[in-house]
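Escalation from tier 1.

The customer reports that the assembly of two entities below gives different structure tokens on two consecutive runs. Tier 1 could not reproduce it. I'm attaching the input and our single run for tier 2 to review.
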Amino acid sequence: MKKTRITLIVLFTLCALALIIFSLSVKDSLPGLLDRMDAEQTATQDDKMLKARDRVLESIREGDRSKILRNLERYTSGWADRLDLNGEIGLELFFFRNGPSLTALGLFLLAAAVAMALSVLDRKGRFRKAAPPLMLIAAVYTGVYILENVVGSDSMLMTVLEKGAIFALIAVSMNLLNGFTGLFSLGQAGFMLIGAYTYAIFTIETGTRPQVYQYYAGGLVQFTLPALVSIGLAGLAAAFFAFLIGLPVLRLKSDYLAIATLGFAEIIRAVFQYDGLGPITNGSNLLRKFATYDTVLFPFVIAGVCIALIALIINSTYGRSFKAIRDDEIAAEAMGINLFRHKQMAFVISSFFAGIGGALLAMYQTTVQAAAFTSAMTYEILLIVVIGGMGSVTGSVIASFLFVAASEWWLRFLDNEQMIGSFQVPLLRSGFRMVVFSVVIMAVVLFYRKGIMGDRELSIKRLTSRLSLRKGGLKNG
Amino acid sequence: MAEHVLELKHITMQFGGVVAVDDLSMHIDQGEIVALIGPNGAGKTTAFNCVTGVYTPTSGQVLYHGRLIVSNRPEGRMKTLYAGSQKDHPAEVVVNTPDRITKLGLARTFQNIRLFKTQTVFENVLIATHLHRTSNLLTATLRLNWREEREMREEVLNLLEVVGLKDARDELATSLPYGKQRRLEIARALATRPKLLLLDEPAAGMNPQETDSLALFIKQIKDRFALTVFLIEHHMDLVMDISDRIYVIDFGRLIAHGAPHEVQDDPDVINAYLGVDEE
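Tier 1 run:
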């Protein structure tokens, strides 16, 4: 057991080092690579080819990676018959093209090797327990980074991943309230709206404000804050509103609380479209031209950090008292838990992260309009929470990605008319996707009464033990 | 005069026109086991709830170690509706919620067991240590309170060992047999580090063997944690066995009070329990 581990560690380290060193060294030798590619200097005889080559060299001097890649692609594919692109040269080209991905992969392997080495050395076993989930998370992030480099950030897959990550954060924040504290609140869209608007208002470039606020003389706010600060502000603004709303509303129970919070969300939506607030909110017009992100990793990292924080809260002594309130309010109070304070805490925390989720959603959409934050949005998130399992963080995350992928991507084909030969497949037309989607959701809810995960968390240990059980069962059978 | 641990002064609890508890006065001293008994619907649990802050009495006061923790007088509509026999009302109004009462050192169990259903035995008790935290949300989230957290866990493990549930610590609370659920509820109450333990019908639904072991158990924890115990009970065997003093109420009114053997022979008590011959 130990021997195989050590071999694995050595193997991983070597692979990692090879990947990193090779992909980094290739980067600087591109001009030399171009020379070797064209050993017979055919380019000097062809003006067009020479120009294409010069363009590559020029973009190398400029240092814009995407431009280098574009020009290199044009050069190598345009004159493939005259260039030597096989063997070692081809390999180097591959490494140059996928440099960042391979470096990331190398770093991941290195981290895996280090983690394995530490697990072997770790006597107490605390690290050994924490290592697999951490490595899984690292693998997901490395995977997303490599995917983005391979398929490009405009692809459907990336769109689904972005939106999935954002919805995961919002769903987990809602789960904290509905699943862990047992407060049935339907105000999530309202808090997202506050977050989205706060973020957008503070990050629109000062120069473009007259354009955005064209009906309101350029608006009131005339400064721009950094994106990260604005995201924090978005959370704080939502939390502040939650604090105020919570004072009266949290004294209500179950259905009444749901109605009150739903009402709040609707009111907020109306207020933000109110003309009198136009200089700040731009009335019912779009907010646009604010800072957005340019890599999928951004929403992934922000959402990941926030979800990790929520998970830490849930497993702290405060999280335990939230769960106690959910299980039995009267007993919780008799154990010295101040019901109102703890409910308010859960409400404010949940809204804080919903606000951050709203800010990320604004970045994803690149425009914000209050009219879009309807109660239907809250229901979508509630659906994710229920499908994932009330009281399961990983359930919400998994359900979020599945939900977004199914609704935006996998079922798309149902919206297009399809012909098989001269036979037109019936029912397939615009809008049919949502019908099937609803049926799928009903089926899921019927077969997984408590959601995909119930109130348990995804655990690698349980997964592997189940797998090995199945294997053992097969052998015996 | 030695200070009473708990003192009820002229407690009256009226719901609408119904007087559930009428002018109940009693006291409990350090280290005693005192029982409150009475037929069904006599108002025992109502009196209990007035002490633990679930209800605010219509009139009367509760003192804990000489400190006023509950005090009220009829207000508003109750002024005209009031039908209790005690006509002098306290001047102060002091209202405490159950969580604050628990923080003062009075912990309770429930007649119909109220455990945290989705939590394990260990977590059920751990939750009850929450009120002694010194951490705030930030330090708890970032695990800067790990030392305190570790102490809490050790304390809970010790408690579980004392009540004999250490082996069942990772089981779901509701999967325990009935008698053990009772013990768990008591362990959970003990985790709030009480000085006065209030037990609401701890032997309800138990068979004779379980009741016997419960009596022993209550005495054990009383000595071990230097507790004073106030209990409501139907089970006469248990009450006669462990109580130092007994209060008997019927229709909300105190009808007898004294040592077990005195109460046992009291004609009023016999009448209340067996009914008076109507001839």
